[in-house]
Amino acid sequence: MRPGSRPHGQRKHTFIEEARRAQIVSAAIDTIAEVGFANASLSRIAQRAGVSKGVISYHFSGKDELMDQVVEQVYSAIAEFVLPRIAEAPDECAALRAHVLAVADYMRGHREQLMALAGIFNGTRTSEGTSSRHRLMVAEPVYQEIEKRLRAGQERGVLRDFDVRVMAVTLQASIDGMFAYWVTHPDHDLEAHAAELAEIIERSARADPPA
Amino acid sequence: MRPGSRPHGQRKHTFIEEARRAQIVSAAIDTIAEVGFANASLSRIAQRAGVSKGVISYHFSGKDELMDQVVEQVYSAIAEFVLPRIAEAPDECAALRAHVLAVADYMRGHREQLMALAGIFNGTRTSEGTSSRHRLMVAEPVYQEIEKRLRAGQERGVLRDFDVRVMAVTLQASIDGMFAYWVTHPDHDLEAHAAELAEIIERSARADPPA
Amino acid sequence: MRPGSRPHGQRKHTFIEEARRAQIVSAAIDTIAEVGFANASLSRIAQRAGVSKGVISYHFSGKDELMDQVVEQVYSAIAEFVLPRIAEAPDECAALRAHVLAVADYMRGHREQLMALAGIFNGTRTSEGTSSRHRLMVAEPVYQEIEKRLRAGQERGVLRDFDVRVMAVTLQASIDGMFAYWVTHPDHDLEAHAAELAEIIERSARADPPA
Amino acid sequence: MRPGSRPHGQRKHTFIEEARRAQIVSAAIDTIAEVGFANASLSRIAQRAGVSKGVISYHFSGKDELMDQVVEQVYSAIAEFVLPRIAEAPDECAALRAHVLAVADYMRGHREQLMALAGIFNGTRTSEGTSSRHRLMVAEPVYQEIEKRLRAGQERGVLRDFDVRVMAVTLQASIDGMFAYWVTHPDHDLEAHAAELAEIIERSARADPPA
DNA sequence: TATGAATGAGAGTTCATTCAT
DNA sequence: TATGAATGAACTCTCATTCAT
After folding, report:
1. Which residues in chain A (138-197) have CB-CB distances under 8 A to chain B?
2. Name one GO molecular function term (chains A, B, C, D) (predicted).
């Protein structure tokens, strides 16, 4: 709508434009993490960003686009951190362990970011009523990589013959659960939890030893 | 502050009173399932129930109490269905399988109910910003039973020496994940998923065979 | 309206009917005194009376009539107490003193009643915007008596030649002020205040001594 | 809780901002004067101001702040008008007269303003049920000045040895009563009333002539 | 670009009143 | 007579969005 007048669409953004957007996205993350998605009004976000409310409307087509940007940015950061760790793994079993441990590592350093992510997914409902997402802490490219590894592991005989989709969903859900538990129990030993979870996953996925 | 002569407290409720409450709770469940917790206003709920907005205020002290009732009712129903199935299991390993399969069975028949439950938990934020809950589909008494079984299984040597808390959290998260995946993929074979998940859980928890 | 079906108009009331009305009026007084007129909903009044909300609507045509009854009852009680005390006064000057002291006496024993009265007058606005009343603690018959006495005193030369209306208004306002001050300063010595006020009134009203 | 980026706190207000606030305060005064405090909803006030309801919430933190502003503004205006008139008085007796006459003068020109003031004080109840105020038409600084004058007059022997507090309360109440009578009897001669009242006050307060 | 101002819809809640039983 | 249930309007307040400057 109203072409040219607003930088919302697929336009090329200027540098200063991008800086403002990043600043606002960052303020949104902090705000959601602190007061929850439901209470993260544009007013509050603008206030935290130190800009006026109108600025947000100027740079984003609406609250929805802002939230989309938050999600995108957080997912990019996760993938950038986690993917290399998976890549280093010598085999598929190790890759699963690496995934769990890497995400836990990332959690420790980005609690707020991830709380915002969770807040958005939990608070945003599609018109059909429920979040269109069934996973939180796992970015799309990471998910793809995991599925690929699971299949490769099965082909190489390292992993047993489970349903790949179910295993992937379970893995992600377990990671999300770890995060949720940690958020509600801040003194919980995240590292130990990750180690235990890695063991659980490995045992559930690895091929039976030859008789 | 405390409202007038409304039947909110621990009063004895008449039959017709209880009927209305049940009707409203039911309308709330349907509404949340359809439009999500965030959009489930009292107006909409009342509209769906076919009553005026004031009726809800008359029968419940506020939106919070209504949501509490929804949660309570759904959890009661889950526990009533799942606990006996667990109880029938011959040993701890079977109990874990039974749990997974029972919950999946319940899901199939109560999709909307559980979507509402998820909606409430996801949409309700504490003042600190995130849901105080880290699990959804597992009612408190069921959780207690599972922890007890895990410990008993370890003592009897049927289950290996994992961290009980982590295993319980993972189990619940996996079940929640199964539900979330099914909700976003309605054609997904829930029964098959449950069977796969049960296998995953059992493999991750059972004791190693003697060498 | 709806003649015969409701006992609101000038019908003859049965004994039990009157008892209920008195009970409700009494509950209204207590409620207003405690929570203020603005917060004295019919719900709360009914609750305090131990009856259902509908009973009030049955016995009174509406909230307005109930409030009218409260005022009427309180005023009757005041007049019944104060008029004899004025009547005993030997002369007009003494009558003014007697009035002030009698009302103060009554106040001490009927704080709540009078707070309710004040609450109603202050809280009820006519459609023209302001209370139609300019005095509170002085019932109509008492007012008439005072005006009569003031005039008589002037005719007999005991009181000086002031404007009777202004003096009466000032007298009433001073009494209302005494009550208001006492209500906001419960430890205030009401008896001493009344004595001082009587002196003030007498000095302002009595005839100058002959030169 | 605290709202977004609204200009409520101790911010520097722009000129246009102040203009709007003044406009809304003015509309509030008119509305309260016309329909009474109890019926002066934000809707009505906004309607009279010719703005939307939200504007009030934008410029004031809530209804309470708006009412506070009304009171503050009216009291400031009263004090600004009355205090100089008292200051001009040659002695304490004249100061009392000046006070009464000045307030009456002010009333004549600001009927609506003062009706709004009365409406707010009468309509606003503390949790204990009654207005925390026992006087209306007398602003705090004026009250202080009066008490000071009364004491000074006693020390100089111009005024007799009454209880200062009681005299001050009575004076204020008499003024409030004059206003209330005038409001309910618009044709009443306010100037004559004030003159009579001044005489009443002076006679009640001045020292006895030496024998 | 950025802002403060304004809007209007919608939220939850309270309440006087009505009515079938 | 008395009740509990229901109504619908009105309340204050919040918020995403729009727009003139």
Report:
1. 162-163, 166-167, 169-170, 172-174, 176-178, 180-181, 183-184, 192-193, 196-197
2. DNA binding
